[in-house]
Write a structure and sequence with these properties.
Elements (H helix, E strand, L loop, with lengths): L6 E6 L4 E4 L1 H7 L3 H4 L11 H18 L2 E8 L5 E12 L5 E10 L5 H4 L5 H12 L5 H16 L6 H28 L2 H4 L21 H26 L1 H15 L14 H23 L4 H21 L4 H6 L5 H5 L1 H24 L14 H14 L6 H24 L4
Antiparallel strand pairs: 1-2, 1-5, 3-4, 4-5
């Protein structure tokens, strides 16, 4: 193979292209202007190959100094290219690992089917986990279980079967919201304009962009999820009355139109963050307690305040890497409105507000003193704030994104335990 036919590409640790040779332009069909600083090397591969193999290849390259083998890449026009690639880690001036270099040659004597990496059943399952963003369903589990704990505190027997049905309905509504948001962020160009996303925390699931599912397929998943959620909701409405319907409708409308026109709540200068906090906080906690008790308990709405503030903090901190793409497409999140540097204060206020509200409600007797154990989770908040203030415009922000998710989940679990057990010890 002649030297000029070889593609040489270097990228940073996130896969964003830094250099792109003449051979790369010939092989993949993109110009330098189209890809440098904008496209990631994963965009040249089938999404399931990325999920099932590429991470392992990169790990092996770091461990052994290089990895090489055959695979299939995608040309700009969509046709498959059988290739041989050698991946080596790149080093900075101080010897630190800063990215990767891939040297790729087309295999003229092989077909795409002959070199296509095998996609395992686990990868296929993982594909759907990515499409629906299932790990983020903790944002639904937490408020529903807190609502059940409030019902228990109020003297009602918690039905685990009704609780399970509530979790199922809430999860389907959440999946519908996730997939609808991915679809409309794609059609609006927001995800395509976002070059700084940090999987899995920001930029959506990237499932459409990775070719894991078509845009039409994503919309279909959203519609089916919403429809199934409505079906699950029917017995819940029958048990607890029309307030369940109204809460469900609020969740559907605010979830679907979070990024869908004409409302696009996420673009309304803080309205999106507010709706997320309300839906996954006071409204969902109150709805869960309503199904158990048949009543809208004021304590349930109050219990949802810290949970809602922390889920809003998850959304908020994940918007920092999306700033440039959101701004370019008119998606006016609070990070876009205030600018990343000034917007850091907003995160501090959300986290502080959550834990202060727990303290206030414990001290005034709304909830047992045992709920103060939830303050242990503030450790993650302190760490996340430190990271955010230092790396708000850098890929090293990722520990703050992960830490905020952990903070929300652990706070919710401990708060739930405190409410449930507080009056019995």
């Amino acid at each position: 193979m002649s030297k000029e036919n070889k593609s040489v590409i270097t990228c940073d640790l996130d896969g964003k292209l830094e250099t792109y040779s003449e051979g790369a332009q010939e092989l993949f069909g993109y110009t330098r202007k189209e890809v440098i600083g904008k496209v990631r090397v994963s965009d040249f591969s089938d999404g399931q190959v990325v999920l099932g193999h590429v991470v392992g290849w990169l790990d092996e390259a770091v461990k052994n100094g290089a990895w090489e083998g055959d695979t299939v890449f995608l040309h700009k026009d969509g046709h498959e290219i059988p290739c041989h690639i050698k991946i080596t880690p790149t080093k900075g001036k101080d010897g630190e690992h800063i990215g990767y270099c891939g040297v790729t040659s087309p295999l003229e004597d092989r077909t795409a089917d002959q070199v296509r990496p095998q996609i395992s059943l686990m990868t296929k399952i993982f594909t759907w986990l990515v499409i629906m963003r299932l790990p983020f369903l903790t944002a639904t589990f937490v408020p529903i279980f807190v609502g059940a704990a409030v019902a228990h505190l109020a003297g009602f027997d918690v039905s685990w079967s009704w609780l399970a049905l509530t979790v199922l309905g809430g999860s389907l509504l959440h999946i519908g919201t996730n997939t609808a948001n991915d679809y409309f962020d794609h059609t609006s160009g927001t995800d395509e304009a976002n070059y700084n996303y940090m999987v899995p925390f920001s930029g959506g699931s990237r499932s459409i962009q990775m070719g894991l599912i078509s845009a039409r397929g994503m919309l279909t998943v959203a519609i089916v999820s919403f429809a199934l959620s409505a079906m699950v909701g029917l017995p819940l409405i029958q048990k607890a009355g029309l307030p369940v319907l109204w809460l469900g409708l609020i969740g559907f409308i605010s979830g679907f139109f979070y990024t869908a026109p004409p409302f696009r709540f996420a673009s309304r200068k803080g309205l999106g963050e507010l709706l997320i906090g309300l839906n996954f906080g006071p409204l969902m906690v109150a709805g869960s307690a309503l199904i158990q008790t048949g009543r809208l308990l004021p304590e349930a709405f109050l219990a949802g305040i810290p949970i809602g503030l922390l889920v809003a903090a998850i959304v908020y901190v994940n918007e920092f890497p999306d700033h440039d793409g959101d701004k370019a497409t008119g998606k006016d999140t609070l990070i876009v409105v205030f600018g990343p540097e000034k917007a850091r204060v907003g995160y501090v206020l959300l986290v502080a507000g959550a834990f202060v509200s727990i303290v206030v409600m414990a001290l005034n007797g709304t909830f047992p003193m045992l709920t103060l154990i939830a303050l242990l989770a503030s450790y993650f908040g302190v760490k996340a704030i430190q990271v955010l203030y230092k790396y708000y415009d850098d890929r090293l922000l990722q520990p703050a994104n992960a830490g905020t998710i952990n903070m929300h989940f652990i706070t919710g679990v401990l708060f739930c335990i405190g409410i449930w057990m507080g009056n019995s010890i």
